[in-house]
Design a protein that fits this description.
single chain; mainly alpha; ABC transporter involved in vitamin B12 uptake, BtuC
Length: about 350
């Protein structure tokens, strides 16, 4: 590699970050999602009297809280160019493990710590297999998804784990209490959204995720420790999934091996709708939050209007396709327009016959 090329690598890596055009595109998508949410909210408020009831709003918030935390981790993974299908299994493993330990007589605090560490371990295993062994992220996380959920089924013996009155009040406080009228179950995910969004915008480490996702080779030439960043990304994704497992266990006071089923696809859908790219290098925590909220409102509308729940996946899938297709069509039209303008600027004698 020449000296000139060596000097150009940092500039190339920086260009792969969220430059002006990409930041503008992100803002447009976030504003579009916010506008769509406002429209759906107003329509539901005026067409169904039960929508604005305290119970319905609380149920909607409680339902979206765990998947929101998982989606934050998934967004970070996608930004870095990775993929994590194991999150649903980690949710099940962590929730079951902590309550099995409580039911066996161990302190709830110890059970919580052990469960979170177990979730972290899955992330570290994912990172090791992907960075050191070289296994494809899709295959790796699909395998650890099955392993995690399988362990959860074994230790729960395929039944619902419900320790009952031995669960201390503090353990249930996050999932069943309120702060100033707001359910604590949704407060924690919102705090995480704010913190992680600030980190992705301001932190040098998290900015490297965009460089890595944009071009792993350029990131390596720029001196970025790609393997270390991937390890942290998968560790963080699994840690957040384990925390989501705690939210579910705290909310219901029980756990089962089927907790978190389908979370991986819901999180990927929300992240992509929010602006993340399956090829890496793009994504927004705020956009993902808005996408989770939009999907939660759609699900709530299905329940309020007594539409068959079997339509939920169809509608969510349709929203995903539209969210991906519209920017793709717009980008293609812009490319064709630029090509046409360039062709017209060419002198007639240089135009192809």
């Amino acid at each position: 590699m020449s000296a000139k090329t060596d000097r150009d690598v940092p500039a190339l890596a920086a260009g792969l970050g969220m430059g002006g055009a990409l930041a503008k595109l992100r803002q447009i998508r976030e504003l579009g999602l916010a506008g769509l949410i406002a429209v759906v909210f107003v329509l539901l408020a005026f067409t169904n009297s039960a929508f604005l009831s305290k119970g319905n709003l609380a149920a909607t918030g409680n339902g979206m809280a765990p998947i929101l935390i998982v989606t934050i981790g998934m967004t970070i993974t996608l930004i870095s160019g990775g993929f994590d299908l194991s999150v649903g299994g980690v949710v099940a493993l962590s929730s079951v493990l902590m309550l099995v330990l409580v039911q066996a007589g161990f302190p709830a605090g110890l059970g919580l710590i052990v469960a979170i560490v177990a979730g972290m371990s899955v992330g570290l295993l994912n990172g090791f297999l992907i960075t050191k062994v070289g296994i494809n992220p899709l295959i790796t996380t699909l395998g650890t998804l099955g392993m995690s959920r399988g362990i959860a089924a074994v230790i729960s013996r395929g039944t619902i784990v419900s320790p009952g009155p031995v669960i201390p009040d503090w353990f249930l406080w996050v999932g069943q209490s309120s702060i100033l009228g707001v359910r604590t179950l949704i407060v924690l995910p919102l705090v995480i959204v704010v913190v992680v969004d600030l980190l992705t915008r301001r932190s040098r480490f998290f900015r490297k995720l965009y460089y890595l996702g944009g071009s792993e080779r350029a990131a390596q030439f720029a001196g970025i420790d790609v393997a270390a960043i991937k390890m942290v990304v998968y560790w963080l994704s699994s840690t957040l999934a384990a925390l989501a497992g705690y939210l579910l266990a705290s909310r219901f006071g029980a756990a089962a091996a089927d907790f978190g089923t389908g979370y991986e696809m819901q999180a990927i859908s929300a992240a992509v709708i929010g602006g993340a790219s399956l090829t890496g290098g793009a994504g927004s925590i705020v956009g993902s939050f808005l996408a989770v909220l939009l999907l939660a409102l759609v699900q709530d509308a299905i329940l309020l209007y007594r539409v068959s729940v079997f339509w939920q996946d169809f509608i969510s899938g349709s929203i995903l396709i539209i969210a991906v297709a519209v920017p793709a069509i717009s980008a293609k039209r812009e490319t064709l327009a630029r090509t046409w303008r360039a062709w017209r600027r060419r002198s007639p004698d240089k135009r192809p016959s």
